[in-house]
Here is the input.
Amino acid sequence: MARRLGRQIRLLSVAVATATALFTAGCTNVAYKVAGDGAIGFGSDVMVPYLLKSDDTTMGCASGEAMTPLFLSFGSVTTPPDELSVLIYMVDGSCATQRAEEANLEYMRLSREQRIEAATDARIRSKRWHAVAARRQYAGYQALTRSMGEPGGKCPNFRDQNQQMIWLLGSAVGLMSVMSDAQSGGLIGVPMDIAPKAERAAACLDTPEGNQRWWGLPMAIRGAIWTVVPGITPAGKDPWKQLDQAMKLGEEQGVRLASALVGMIAYNNDNTALAKDVIRRHAASVKTIAPNNDYRMVDVMATDMLTLISDRMWTDAMGYRTPVGSFGKFWDEKSEAKKVDVKLDDLL
Here is the structure.
């Protein structure tokens, strides 16, 4: 009798321990899901708007790279934050692009000095960072396809204006992934058909209302792609005229991302004269029209992108990047040449 009672007690103990473990695990999973939902909601509703209002892109990069693993890890216990991921990967990609461009400027300087081994090493570092940028940007584009469908097909029914912004920026980041991968030498293998898909995605918001609301970006994306993908420009459309109109809208609204796109396209097409004009125009615009307070970060990122192009041109011509206070000016302007010659304090 005692042996039978002891066996029943042991079985009861095992059952209680098992139930406790299952209950505890269930509570843990619920707690993680609640925490995940809260963190993702905080990221979308509070952190992103806060960062978009910031003008410190360096801090934005550091924050984005540091917080990415945390936010994305919650996707294993709750709904993956794909819409938030589009914005996170866009910022993370820009961080890698900045490092790639720094290595490229070093490569250009070393090449001028005939330091072949060091220049080769800098070029390799640049390509590796472009590959990191392409991987991150492509991940952002893939997050867009998971959350809102593959761009290039039927236009989505947008839930609100935030979804429209994510759709546009996700399409743009997909286009950037193609460009970054090309500069890496194709290390990632980003599909080239993203470019025409991004053009058709931008067409969903290429309306008077859409362009007015989104700084001319829909028509800028389409116009930029028309200049590089043959055979897709609609009849009667002039890509460069459309790009000019997009820049005007961006300037008027204080979010000049269209200008950055035009500058990149001009520079990549070896149209140095146009690239200079875009940079001059942008430099004049930021002095007279303040950035849109709600999207200050996007506007500053556009300035950063054009500054990189300016740095490339200055380095190619003079061996050093754009001098301090000379953004929007160039070495072949007589007044600027005099200023650069006398600014010996910059060497100290």
Summary: The first helix runs from residue 2 to 52. DSSP finds 13 helices and no strands in the chain.
